[in-house]
Write a structure and sequence with these properties.
The termini are close together. Helices cover 54% and strands 0% of the residues. It is globular, with a radius of gyration of 15 Å. The protein contains 4 helices and no strands. With 108 residues, it is mainly alpha-helical.
């Protein structure tokens, strides 16, 4: 079982994830060209990030995070070929990433 050093902070963070969980891409400030038109925006990176709770080791948790970001990058590169520079995400890509983290709502 995982012990938490800051249970009050963890509870506050969970409440914030729940409160902002229904925010739209527009409300989050994602520019239109980066918005997903799918029924569930960025479903694959969100699902991949949610797998983080299945792992116990930090290495595997980091791998889940990296895999989710690669999924996001692949989606954006497919949609806007040549506009993204590998290794140098811009602020809009990071805004989309934060949206994905918010929607995934990792528990721990």
């Amino acid at each position: 079982k995982v012990s938490h050093a800051f249970p009050q902070k963890d509870a506050k963070l969970r409440d914030q994830f729940a409160y902002f969980g229904n925010i739209s891409q527009d409300q989050f400030g994602i520019p239109e060209k980066y918005q997903s038109q799918e029924l569930i925006p960025y479903a694959l990176p969100i699902a991949t990030l949610k797998t983080i709770c299945l792992f116990y080791t930090p290495r595997k948790k980091l791998y889940a995070i990296l895999s989710a970001f690669r999924e996001l990058y692949s989606i954006l590169e497919e949609r806007m070929p040549g506009e993204l520079i590998a290794g140098k995400p811009n602020e809009d890509v990071l805004r989309v990433w934060r949206f994905i983290v918010l929607k995934a709502g990792p528990k721990d």
